[in-house]
Amino acid sequence: MEQKTIHEATLFLPPNAKTLWTAYMQAETPVPEGIYESQPIVMAVATFADGTWVAGGVMKSKEPDVYNIKFFNTFDANGNLITEPRQPIDPSDHEDFHHGGCIFNLNDDESVEYHLTIVERTDAAAQ
């Protein structure tokens, strides 16, 4: 059996963010003024030990009164967005932000896995 290399990182969200971010996704909360289509409404970043990083959040859609878009953009250690052979994390079937994380690969090499954990902070200092 081939041994896997596993990289782990945590995407820390503000208190109550899973509920609040879901409200943006489902257009239950209006998008603040000054945010344009395809711009993040809310976002958090997690960095892996090898320098790979993920920016995840909710971006404004063409129809922000109907829905907004959950995203997870993955970047290499040099800051290049990874899109080939595909986006490493596909949240297109997610209806909310209430999940604990995901496991993904940057490419077709399944011997290297990335484990992203999503955690809401509970301390007042996180606000």
Q: Can you give a write-up of this model?
A:
- The chain is mostly beta strands.
- The protein has one domain.
- It has one helix and six strands, in the order βαβββββ.
- The chain has a three-stranded mixed β-sheet with strand order 1-6-5, with no helix packed on it.
- A hairpin with a 7-residue loop joins β5 and β6.
- The mean pLDDT is about 95.
- Classify the helix fraction into a percent range: under 10%
Q: First CA to last CA: what distance?
A: 45 Å
Strand percent estimate: 25-35%
SSE run: EHEEEEE
Q: Supply the number of helical segments.
A: 1
**DSSP, total strands:** 6
- The mean pLDDT is 93
- Anisotropy-based shape: globular
Overall tally of domains? 1
Radius of gyration based on Cα positions:
15 Å
Note poorly predicted spans: none
In which order are the strands of the major sheet placed?
1-6-5
Q: Could you give a short account of the major beta sheet?
A: 3 strands, mixed
**Broad structural category:** mainly beta
